[in-house]
Amino acid sequence: MTEIEIVEYRSVFREPALQLLDSFFRVEGFAVPAPLLAERFDRFTADDGNAVLLALAGEEVLGVITLTTTFGLEFGLSAELEDLYVAPEARGRGVASQLLDASLAWCRAQGVKEAYLVVLPEDVAAGRLVPFYEARGFVEKGRRLLFFDGDLSGSGAGT
I want to staple 62 with a disulfide (CB 3.0 to 4.6 A). Which of 27, 55, 79, 98 is the partner? Predict the structure, then answer.
Protein backbone atom coordinates (compact mmCIF):
# COMPACT_ATOMS: atom_id res chain seq x y z
CA MET A 1 0.00 0.00 0.00
CA THR A 2 1.34 3.42 -0.99
CA GLU A 3 2.07 5.86 1.83
CA ILE A 4 -0.35 8.76 2.13
CA GLU A 5 1.07 12.28 2.05
CA ILE A 6 -0.86 15.44 2.92
CA VAL A 7 0.11 18.49 0.87
CA GLU A 8 -1.15 22.02 0.37
CA TYR A 9 -2.91 22.56 -2.93
CA ARG A 10 -0.82 23.14 -6.04
CA SER A 11 -2.30 23.94 -9.45
CA VAL A 12 -1.09 20.63 -10.87
CA PHE A 13 -3.83 19.02 -8.73
CA ARG A 14 -6.60 21.41 -9.80
CA GLU A 15 -8.66 18.93 -11.85
CA PRO A 16 -8.56 16.00 -9.38
CA ALA A 17 -9.34 18.39 -6.50
CA LEU A 18 -12.31 19.79 -8.42
CA GLN A 19 -13.51 16.25 -9.21
CA LEU A 20 -13.42 15.27 -5.54
CA LEU A 21 -15.21 18.44 -4.46
CA ASP A 22 -17.83 17.95 -7.17
CA SER A 23 -18.40 14.39 -5.92
CA PHE A 24 -18.67 15.63 -2.33
CA PHE A 25 -21.21 18.32 -3.19
CA ARG A 26 -23.30 15.87 -5.21
CA VAL A 27 -23.34 13.35 -2.34
CA GLU A 28 -24.37 16.11 0.07
CA GLY A 29 -27.15 17.23 -2.26
CA PHE A 30 -25.92 20.70 -3.18
CA ALA A 31 -24.31 20.21 -6.55
CA VAL A 32 -22.70 23.30 -8.05
CA PRO A 33 -22.46 23.51 -11.87
CA ALA A 34 -18.91 22.63 -12.94
CA PRO A 35 -18.02 26.04 -14.43
CA LEU A 36 -19.23 27.84 -11.30
CA LEU A 37 -17.41 25.39 -9.02
CA ALA A 38 -14.19 25.94 -10.98
CA GLU A 39 -14.59 29.72 -10.78
CA ARG A 40 -15.24 29.61 -7.05
CA PHE A 41 -12.37 27.18 -6.49
CA ASP A 42 -9.92 29.46 -8.29
CA ARG A 43 -11.09 32.43 -6.25
CA PHE A 44 -10.94 30.38 -3.05
CA THR A 45 -7.40 29.15 -3.68
CA ALA A 46 -6.21 32.68 -4.56
CA ASP A 47 -7.12 33.93 -1.07
CA ASP A 48 -4.28 33.56 1.47
CA GLY A 49 -6.85 33.18 4.25
CA ASN A 50 -8.02 29.90 2.73
CA ALA A 51 -6.38 26.54 2.30
CA VAL A 52 -6.98 23.35 0.38
CA LEU A 53 -5.14 20.29 1.64
CA LEU A 54 -4.93 17.12 -0.41
CA ALA A 55 -4.22 13.52 0.50
CA LEU A 56 -1.97 11.89 -2.06
CA ALA A 57 -0.86 8.34 -2.70
CA GLY A 58 1.89 8.90 -5.21
CA GLU A 59 0.28 11.26 -7.74
CA GLU A 60 -3.28 10.07 -7.02
CA VAL A 61 -5.47 12.49 -5.06
CA LEU A 62 -7.45 10.47 -2.50
CA GLY A 63 -9.05 13.19 -0.41
CA VAL A 64 -9.49 16.90 0.15
CA ILE A 65 -10.28 19.33 2.94
CA THR A 66 -10.93 23.04 2.55
CA LEU A 67 -10.42 25.66 5.26
CA THR A 68 -11.26 29.31 5.46
CA THR A 69 -10.32 31.87 8.09
CA THR A 70 -12.06 34.93 9.37
CA PHE A 71 -11.18 37.52 11.98
CA GLY A 72 -13.80 38.53 14.50
CA LEU A 73 -14.08 40.20 17.86
CA GLU A 74 -15.13 37.11 19.80
CA PHE A 75 -12.31 34.72 18.87
CA GLY A 76 -9.85 36.75 16.84
CA LEU A 77 -8.70 34.52 14.00
CA SER A 78 -10.96 31.50 13.54
CA ALA A 79 -11.17 28.81 10.89
CA GLU A 80 -13.97 26.77 9.45
CA LEU A 81 -13.06 23.31 8.26
CA GLU A 82 -15.49 23.38 5.37
CA ASP A 83 -15.33 20.39 3.08
CA LEU A 84 -13.78 17.05 4.01
CA TYR A 85 -14.15 14.32 1.43
CA VAL A 86 -12.33 11.06 0.75
CA ALA A 87 -12.84 9.12 -2.47
CA PRO A 88 -14.91 6.00 -1.75
CA GLU A 89 -12.13 3.66 -2.90
CA ALA A 90 -9.70 5.25 -0.41
CA ARG A 91 -11.90 5.06 2.68
CA GLY A 92 -10.86 2.98 5.66
CA ARG A 93 -7.18 3.91 5.28
CA GLY A 94 -7.09 6.81 7.75
CA VAL A 95 -7.16 9.47 5.03
CA ALA A 96 -9.86 11.58 6.72
CA SER A 97 -8.00 11.52 10.03
CA GLN A 98 -4.76 12.56 8.34
CA LEU A 99 -6.51 15.41 6.52
CA LEU A 100 -8.15 16.58 9.73
CA ASP A 101 -4.85 16.44 11.66
CA ALA A 102 -3.08 18.38 8.90
CA SER A 103 -5.85 20.98 8.82
CA LEU A 104 -5.51 21.57 12.56
CA ALA A 105 -1.74 21.88 12.16
CA TRP A 106 -2.35 24.45 9.39
CA CYS A 107 -4.69 26.33 11.74
CA ARG A 108 -2.05 26.39 14.48
CA ALA A 109 0.57 27.67 12.03
CA GLN A 110 -1.78 30.51 11.00
CA GLY A 111 -2.41 31.52 14.62
CA VAL A 112 -6.05 30.41 14.58
CA LYS A 113 -7.65 30.53 18.04
CA GLU A 114 -10.90 28.67 17.28
CA ALA A 115 -11.57 25.98 14.68
CA TYR A 116 -15.05 24.71 13.92
CA LEU A 117 -17.03 22.71 11.40
CA VAL A 118 -20.64 22.13 10.45
CA VAL A 119 -22.25 18.70 10.44
CA LEU A 120 -25.45 18.43 8.43
CA PRO A 121 -28.59 17.22 10.26
CA GLU A 122 -28.84 14.07 8.14
CA ASP A 123 -25.26 13.16 9.10
CA VAL A 124 -26.10 13.74 12.77
CA ALA A 125 -29.20 11.54 12.43
CA ALA A 126 -27.21 8.81 10.68
CA GLY A 127 -24.58 8.89 13.45
CA ARG A 128 -21.77 9.02 10.92
CA LEU A 129 -19.67 12.06 11.56
CA VAL A 130 -20.22 13.40 15.05
CA PRO A 131 -18.40 10.51 16.79
CA PHE A 132 -15.52 10.83 14.30
CA TYR A 133 -15.10 14.54 15.08
CA GLU A 134 -15.69 14.18 18.82
CA ALA A 135 -12.96 11.54 19.00
CA ARG A 136 -10.62 14.16 17.55
CA GLY A 137 -11.44 16.91 20.06
CA PHE A 138 -14.45 18.68 18.57
CA VAL A 139 -17.32 19.41 20.94
CA GLU A 140 -20.88 20.69 20.55
CA LYS A 141 -21.08 24.18 22.00
CA GLY A 142 -24.83 24.69 21.76
CA ARG A 143 -24.75 27.17 18.92
CA ARG A 144 -27.14 26.91 16.03
CA LEU A 145 -26.30 27.96 12.50
CA LEU A 146 -29.01 30.04 10.82
CA PHE A 147 -28.88 31.15 7.20
CA PHE A 148 -30.46 34.33 5.92
CA ASP A 149 -33.04 33.27 3.35
CA GLY A 150 -33.52 36.65 1.69
CA ASP A 151 -31.97 38.43 -1.25
CA LEU A 152 -28.41 39.70 -0.76
CA SER A 153 -27.83 40.54 -4.40
CA GLY A 154 -28.11 44.28 -3.78
CA SER A 155 -31.55 44.58 -5.31
CA GLY A 156 -33.63 44.69 -2.17
CA ALA A 157 -31.93 42.71 0.58
CA GLY A 158 -34.45 41.18 2.91
CA THR A 159 -37.24 40.89 0.37
Answer: 55
